Amino acid sequence: SQQGEEDPQALSIQEGENATMNCSYKTSINNLQWYRQNSGRGLVHLILIRSNEREKHSGRLRVTLDTSKKSSSLLITASRAADTASYFCATDVSNFGNEKLTFGTGTRLTIIP
Amino acid sequence: GAGVSQSPRYKVAKRGQDVALRCDPISGHVSLFWYQQALGQGPEFLTYFQNEAQLDKSGLPSDRFFAERPEGSVSTLKIQRTQQEDSAVYLCASRGTSMDTQYFGPGTRLTVL
Q1: Over 80: is that where the pLDDT of B1 sits?
Q2: CB pair distance less than 8 Å for B98 and A42
Q3: φ, ψ dihedrals at A82, nearest 5°
Q4: A41: how many CB neighbours lie within 10 A of its CB?
Q5: CA–CA distance, A81 with A62 (Å, rounded to integer)
Q6: Measured between CB atoms, does A100 come within 8 Å of chain B?
Q7: Rounded to an integer, what distance in angstroms lies between the CA atom of residue B71 and that of residue A17?
């Protein structure tokens, strides 16, 4: 079963605009990760935020985590055509850390050139 | 190798046939994971190995699914008597240490006719 849900399910924006997608989850977590998946390819790890962190940056990516609301957001600034992909949040709920990931349903992002 | 590799990339099977999917993890990675991704969904955990030990197989959907990693490196996911509902992309991931992220292969797309 899916742990989380991404919102929106699909998002189309113009190149250069910012894209924001949200993830909600159900149980307490050790960390939350965001992955990107291009059509027909495997998952690429983007960023990890631990349960005691509130915000993290990596290049054009900004991730926030609100454990009280059990939610996270991923912001991609200055979007590019190459950002077109599906984005998934994944939570680690295992006792020993990162043994298995529970993925959300994904947001399909389309960047319009 | 440079990354996780999986073979075959595509597999078409007739209902009732047995299939075997192979995963070559990143050299030296201790942990190996299998996930199943149905069309339009996020990946769902199947099973987890630490070296040759299968520590968690709670996600395997039925006893028709079997995974092994006899020498702690290459892993094989076997599905017996395939059914149409087994059609999905099967993803393999490996991880070096418990603090590392999971690195995913490109997946094997299984279609059961």
Answers
A1: no
A2: no
A3: -70, -10
A4: 13
A5: 18
A6: yes
A7: 49
- Verify whether the Cβ–Cβ distance A2 to B106 is below 8 Å: no
**Structure-token pair, residue B77:** 């996911």
Chain A neighbors of B9, CB-CB under 8 A: none
**Which residues of chain A make contact with B106, given a CB cutoff of 8 A?**
40-42
Please report, to the nearest 10 degrees, the dihedral formed by the alpha carbons of residues B47, B49, B53, B54 taken in order: 0
Q: Write the residue in B35, B42, B103 that is nearest to A2 by C-beta.
A: B42
pLDDT for A96 equals 59
pLDDT averages per 10-residue partition of chain A, 113 residues: 76 97 91 90 90 95 96 97 95 70 93 95
Tokens linked to B14: 């007739």
| Phi (first) and psi of residue B84, to 5 degrees | -60, -35
